[in-house]
Amino acid sequence: MSGQGPTTSSALWHGFADMGAVVRDGAFVFARGEGAYVFDTAGNRYLDATAGLWFANVGHGRAEVADAVRDQLLKVAHVTGFGDGATDTTVALAERLQGIAPVPDSKIFFTSGGSDSVDSAIKLARRYWQEKGRPEKKLIVGRSNAYHGMHVGGTSLGGIPVNAEGYGGVLFDDTATVAWDDAKALLGLIERVGAESVAAFVAEPVIGAGGLLPPPEGYLREVRDICREHDVLFIADEVVTGFGRIGGAWFASSRFDLQPDLMTTAKGLTSGYVPMGALFVAPHVAEPFFAGGVWWRHGYTYGGHAAAAAASMAVLDIMERENLVAEALRLQDSLLRELSTLAEHPKVKDVRGGVGAVAGVQLHEPAEAMATVKKLRAQGVSGRAAGLGTLQYSPALITTDEQVAEIAAATRRALDA
Ligand code: PLP
Question: Which family does it belong to (predicted)?
Fold first, then answer.
């Protein structure tokens, strides 16, 4: 690596960062991206091992997506989606998403990102039970190690306690947490508090930010069945796993036949070219709101933004044409194959993967993960540390097997350094 290195600015406040250290040591500033690579302001090239924050599924710098956004902006950037308004592009995207939804005839409620989608799901779950005449069903159950975004609902529901600390207590009442890998814990909780008070259970099919934790065999179907048997809505948080990331199907919910009542998405929906999220609502949950005479008083100014919808249409075209939902299975295998070679490394505690184009290398010393990410950069790879001291691997779905091998080799060099 050569060039001027990090850029220092005391103006930009980064999320999830020690700003004193960022200002002191400099920020990692990117100037451009191309395919599986990103380039810093000095022109140094890095393999993007994480597709940004799990979003750049079709890779960086795709002119076709930029052209679609430009064309839309010149027609109309956006109109409100409140009331009976929409743009033709937004309507077309909703129809297209309905066609690939895990539950046929799902309704698509657009948001501006993953946290919006999660908080919308939590509100809709509670609102649904009110409409069904069961207002006492309010408790929303999440899992340890879970990440559901940083809005008030998602922060309260998340299973990473430090993320909810420092606000003077729980932000949103009526949430509970069960062990991430124990379906019986969910059953026990429902039996203890009574199904009549539980509105919904929320689960990431593969826990992402909390540490790349694939579900135990059979877990997802079991919790889904427990929810069904107890009249608890099952919410799949597919902000990371959706749109081909998990491979073999558009959604983990389809691959594992989960039939979620609600499904939250964002990220891969537009590959991050323009912010956008979408909440998928199964028809039986939407029914009270579509029967006539009832409003859901909820929405975001930029929900269904026309330029984002145009970006999404172009991204879905690329995904289909380049078979990226199938390619994710190739990456599932190559990530596990290449990263497994690190399993015997003295600094490595565990290598996890095998469920889509996501993998994690957990270190014995969680505190070393951030330092290893910095060493990885010196090896030409842009990486990230997720929870439990786990190095995150979620490359663009266009990443080649050779590039995956290079990411693994660079990780070994970083661990040795
Ligand atoms: N849900 C999950 C599972 C996520 O991983 C994330 C973000 O990483 C979110 C929700 C929040 O999404 P956003 O950061 O777009 O608000």
Answer: Belongs to the class-III pyridoxal-phosphate-dependent aminotransferase family.
